[in-house]
Write a structure and sequence with these properties.
This protein is mainly beta. The protein contains three helices and 16 strands.
Length: 256
Amino acid sequence: MLTLSSSVPTPSSLVSLLLELDIHLPTDRNALVVDHFNYDTLSASEQHDVVLLPRPDAIRPDVKNFFVGDGKGGDVLAFPRGVGQTLGNTSPLLTPILRAPRSAYSYNPKDDIEGVEDPFAVGPQLSLITTMQARNSARFTVIGSAEMLEDKWFDAKVKRSVGMGGAGSDAKTVSTANQEFIKEVTGWTFGEIGVLQVFNIEHYLNESGVRSNVTNPKIYRVKNDVVRLSLTSKHGSINTNTFTDLQHWDPRIFLG
């Protein structure tokens, strides 16, 4: 896990490491994410650099969201003085689990805020928290705001600004859900959630829908129809599920 901060320039070695993973940081080492429509009026009434946003939605409808909390909605996350990242299009291993609101952008606070013409990235182009799971199941997470992990922000009192179209004009002071959210993020990163355990694998020939009596044979022929059964469970759960996969045999696939 790597945390970033706009107040501490990221070392060149880490910038180079992230580039190898297709994660790009602003060339300006002092850049941070601001949002003039979704900021905390209590702590960032002038700088607008404490961005308030809801918990993230699932990446796709068929993907379980491990960061949704109790699922009731209404939680507020505070992203204070953080660094946004952009992701390349070539790696299927990267997932932005928390994106910036569409009115947010990255800029250098030393520049004139009225004259920002070419920001590093804007809106959902900015990933605030990025995860990667390698093909060997190793996990890596980049959190753009180290302050998110501080006790101060775990349940800080915040109040949303008036957003686009007058949204938030009746906003009330609420406590952030940073503590539970960060617990979920670190739990995923260190393999405490979102891990499948495989207890048993079986495979057999299934030509023309007729099952062979031989289980786990050592040899198949190319283009044989093969059924593979996997008995799995979620880490920390006693509930088991069986997944069935019908596929053509390919010598490059190891089944046994």
